[in-house]
Amino acid sequence: MMRCLLALWEKEWLVLSRDVHGLAVLFLMPAVFIVVMSLALSDAFKDDAARQTEFAVLAVDDAPLARRFAQGLSGDGFRESSAPASEAEARQGVRSGRPSLVLVLPRGLGRALAAPAGGPAPALTLLADPALPSLLLATFQQRALGAALEQRVSTLLEQAGAGLPELKRAALNVEVLGQSRAQRPSSVQQNVPAWLIFGMFFVVLPIASLFIVERRDGTLARLVAQQVPFPLLLLGKLAPFFVVNLVQAALMLLAGRILVPWFGGETLALPERWDLLAAVAASTSLAAIAWGLLVAVCARTLEQATVIGGVGNILAAAIGGIMVPRFVMPQAMQTLSDFSPMAWALDGFHAVLLREGTAATITGPCAKLLALAAALLALALLVHSRRRVLHSAQ
Amino acid sequence: MGTLSLEGLSFRYPGRAEAVLDGVTLDIPAGGIFGLLGPNGAGKTTLIAVITGQVRGATGRICLGGEPFERVRRAQPRCLGLVPQEYAFYPMLSCRENLRFFGAVQGLAGDELRRRIAAVAAFARIEAVLARRAGQLSGGLKRRLNLAIGLLAEPQLLLLDEPTVGVDPQSRAFLLESIRSLAAEGRTIVYTSHYMEEVQAICDRVAIVDRGRVLVTGALSELLQDASGLLTLRLRSPLPQSLADAWRARHALLDDGEARYRLQLRAADEIAAILAAAHSAGCEPLAIAYGRRDLEQLFMQLTDRSLRD
Predict the structure, then answer these.
(1) B20, B88, B149 ranked by CB distance to A217: nearest
(2) Contacting residues of B for A223, CB less than 8 Å apart
(3) Where are the beta strands (DSSP E) in chain A?
(4) For A394, which of B46, B80, B91 is closest by C-beta distance?
(5) What is the 3-state secondary structure (H, E, C) of A45-85?
């Protein structure tokens, strides 16, 4: 039995190593995705210093007030640009997105803010670029109201002979949990696991296509005639593709470590717990291979396998947070994504790569992936056992 | 090895109304070549698939030497060899890698595996191409590799499903000679083919199947005997009208075209007069058959001439 299994493994290796297109899908595609997506999304994950929304403050009659407003509004992702000469010029500029925001201070605002008795102050106008995300607009709105309040309070305190304590960043320490490196997760840190999982699940195509070609060419008939047990045939595919998946994982981590920085992106920070990373990769691999074996058993043609396997993977990636991060999805989609095995795998990889997780934190995702692998394998065996014609013999 | 007996084998593909095998009963004696003939879709390949276990759910019994075939196979896993009609090997592997793989999955290893690879390569005369990728071989070499793989474990029962399809006359002659030599060693060979002359040339016994049923089975020499008094004649040129009319009246002449004729004789001694008459009319006889029909005639007679598939 073991001799037969070794022969099956050796054959699978030889066949796979000579399938250039299959290897390209398995290794090149995820590497390209990792580089491209890490670079494309690098700004989205960078610190505020690197990603800024420009704004200007236009005061018709009070330049010092505009100066103080601008100081209050700067920072946390907002950078002041030169003020337009007039409101018309400001509107023109905002239409073309330069700057994205202009806060127009109305005539008499300085006097209203300094008046000891409270009363209705003239309204501020905020001109906003329509392409600006609504979240940024809302944030700036709050900052503008905050700046106005600050002006009012500081003026009143000055009149009373007191000063305003320095608040802002100094008064609020932000701590990103699980990041001992004192930096926020970079784009490459987010993208490497995502596209690595996507690449690992693409073993479904070579597994299914090799199996279907074996069925079509009569080699499967020959092996059945030679009484090679079907579970052994499946096991013969499992081990080589498991190794392929682990090599994929290692190479994709290297791509994040070497290739992405070489193209100008950030360098992937590797975890200290390699054993946990290996456990998540192994669980992901087993789920991916079992999915491939089920497609191989069920699909009758290469076209069917490509459609079922390929489209299935893309759907799982789309709802699983591979293509679009889960946190930007609406609640219903986030709930749906809990059913995607790629989301489970991503949770596991994020636990290790982003959150410095422990064995306990990866147990959940790994258990789900392993349970899925067992279920898919059992289903593949069940489908095979119920099939009356193992090889088209007409 | 005893007789391979198939008793009342029936099988219907899922979703099909008609049975592809409908109570097939055959005895295939040990040793010799047994020809399995039939039009496309007759059920030959399905019958082989049932014997090898590729198709499940067939009813009936298969026995070898009186023992249930499954039990025999469990006890002697290498007793059965299959050479499918497809090129059932891996085109991206070399011939040697293919032979090593198919030998190893049958439990061959070490010196025994090396010895068997050398033996079957020599038998199929593929030693010179062992290092070449199987997919790069010519059609004839592919057929020889296909046969060689089937012989690795020295099976006593060998099922050959159209083993000469798509090869040139030289390769066909070589393959037929090789198959004949395998039978001479005492193996039982079940041979399916569409080529009647091949079957007639190498098979000892045949069965003609159609629509899942055995139409006739027996020793080839017996099946080809013809006591109907039919004379088949092929001439160098067509008969003149007058002679054709005379033979039509006297011998129920049938014109098969291209100077081929069939005549009904009352006795064999009429042959001499017929040949003389043809010769006198300037139609030199090229071939004559009497008292024996060829396999194609029998096949067409039993399976009728309607197209299949």
Answers:
(1) B88
(2) 105
(3) 53-59, 78-80, 101-105, 125-128
(4) B46
(5) HCCCCCCCEEEEEEECCCHHHHHHHHHHHCECCEEECCCCC
Closest to A317 (Cα-Cα) out of A285, A288, A340, A297: A340
Contact A221 B93 (CB under 8 A): no
Q: How far apart, in whole angstroms, are the C-alpha atoms of residue A387 and residue A382?
A: 9
Contacts of B7 by beta carbon, 8 Å cutoff, 6+ apart: B25, B60, B61, B62, B63
Structure tokens at B293: 């029909």
Token pair for A2: 């073991």
What residue type is A1 in one-letter code? M
Contacting A residues, span 222-261, partner chain B, CB-CB under 8 Å: 222-228
β-pair type (B21-28, B4-11): antiparallel
Can you tell me whether residue B217 is helix, strand or coil?
strand
Report residue A287 as tokens.
């789920």
Q: What six digits make up the tokens of B172?
A: 């066909």
Q: How far is A382 from chain B (nearest CA, A)?
A: 14
Provide the shortest C-alpha distance from residue A16 to chain B (in Å).
Answer: 9
**Contact between B105 and A223 using a beta-carbon 8 Å cutoff:** yes
Q: Each residue's pLDDT tens digit in chain B (309 positions)?
A: 788 999 999 998 887 888 889 999 999 998 889 999 888 888 888 899 899 888 888 899 999 988 999 899 888 888 888 898 889 999 999 999 999 999 999 989 899 999 999 999 999 999 999 999 999 998 889 999 999 999 999 999 999 988 888 888 888 888 888 899 988 888 999 999 888 888 888 898 999 888 888 888 888 888 878 777 888 899 999 999 989 998 998 889 888 888 899 898 888 888 988 999 998 888 888 988 888 777 777 777 777 755 565
CB contact under 8 A, B104 and A7: yes
Q: Torsions phi, psi of A163, nearest 5?
A: -115, 160
Inter-chain CB pairs, A–B, below 8 Å: 106
3-state helix vs strand vs coil in chain A, percent to 5: 65, 5, 30
B73-80 long-range contacts (CB < 8 A, ≥24 apart) are B73/A227, B77/A226, B77/A227, B77/B106, B77/B107, B78/B106, B78/B107, B78/B153, B78/B154, B78/B155, B79/B1, B79/B155, B79/B156, B79/B157, B80/A225, B80/B51, B80/B52, B80/B155, B80/B157, B80/B158, B80/B159
Cβ separation of B56 and A3 shorter than 8 Å?
Answer: no
| B52·A221 Cβ contact <8 A | yes
B84, A221: Cβ pair inside 8 Å? yes
**Percent with pLDDT over 70 in chain A:** 88
Tokens in use for B113?
């595996």
